[in-house]
Prior knowledge:
Two copies of one chain form a homodimer. Chain A is built from eight helices and nine strands. By secondary structure, chain A is of the alpha/beta class. In chain A, strands 5-6-4-3-7-8-9 form a seven-stranded mixed beta sheet, sandwiched between helices. In chain A, strands 1-2 form a two-stranded antiparallel ribbon. In chain A, strand 5 and strand 6 (130-134) form a beta hairpin. Chain A has two domains: 8-79, Winged helix-like DNA-binding domain superfamily/Winged helix DNA-binding domain (Arc Repressor Mutant, subunit A); 85-197, 3-Layer(aba) Sandwich (Rossmann fold), CATH 3.40.50.
Amino acid sequence: MISSSVSKRQLERFPIYLGYLKQIARQGEHYISSSTLAKALGLTEEKVRKDLQVVSRRQGKPHRGREISLLIKDLENFLGYLDAENAIIVGVGHLGEAFLNYQGFSKRGLNIVAGFDVDDKKVGYDINDKPIYHIDRLNDLVSQLNISIAILTCPAQVAQKMVDLLTRAGVKGIWNFAPIHLHASDDVVIENVDLSASLAILSYKLETKFKEVK
Amino acid sequence: MISSSVSKRQLERFPIYLGYLKQIARQGEHYISSSTLAKALGLTEEKVRKDLQVVSRRQGKPHRGREISLLIKDLENFLGYLDAENAIIVGVGHLGEAFLNYQGFSKRGLNIVAGFDVDDKKVGYDINDKPIYHIDRLNDLVSQLNISIAILTCPAQVAQKMVDLLTRAGVKGIWNFAPIHLHASDDVVIENVDLSASLAILSYKLETKFKEVK
């Protein structure tokens, strides 16, 4: 990994570059210039140049630009993949269940090994061969199962309590899907995915769009 | 709605204020100052002041700050809720199925009425009383069912094709969960939720954190 300061905004753009580059690589493209990449993604050329300087020391070739396969490799190296971290689902509602069934995260090194809930109708059963435990057993099982990451899919009202439990149990990272601001100690990293915020933004965009059209 | 220019960053913070204010309102708080709010959410006081000026013309009271219940009302009015828009799920995998089962979005005016897929094992069946149709019927059913929003939970490889189909069929907004950059005409609004990007950010945060600790 190249050490350099990187903003959260930049960090959010890297997977977008990656997705786009993989897409055009599949379509048979071999080289891309910063200006073409900028145009395709609706960014300024300057921004793209700066972003790519963070992830790659390679220079593009005049007239052809950068080799796509190498740029993909550099982006993947920079972003890194989780190092086969074990994860648990906290809150086995619809979203939690979807994650227990989904295989896709294991490609990024995230192995979901179990779920936790308080509901008697769920505790003691398996979903996709992954056991659902009662939340009371969290503290013991986090260390027994060597869990480093918790995916929070519980209701907002209990999310902070879960963060406190998970911190005490020793998880290192929390991927939070509960629509609430959470406090954690410095030992724990939190990444938020706020679906209701995203829906509010879609709603706002639609409304302003609609106003413009009228 | 108060007309004012608002940045995407601001827009993303409003639901966070809302979540936090509702939480402390439940805990019995009645007033909050910009500085307390800033401290609680890890923002600068200046940023909080500016944000709240966008959504509310009311002034806080000296020493007490703003009335929480009124601030909640202003934020909700500003963000708006979808006006009972009908939505469809495009791609009934695990995430699509979770959304068909989830009731929570209807509180924000998003009524999920049907799913679309190509898989014979899904087409013709119901999930949570919502029918799954073959994607071939998209064009007819979007107008018949009065659909304005599509939730894209299909694989990345077919997402752009789906956007083209949906645009032709006349949807106004697309909530995209496929990890890919999509092109759409100016008539269609897209809001992206990129889970693999979010996971990459969590992974990056964990790695840099881990390096600091060593």
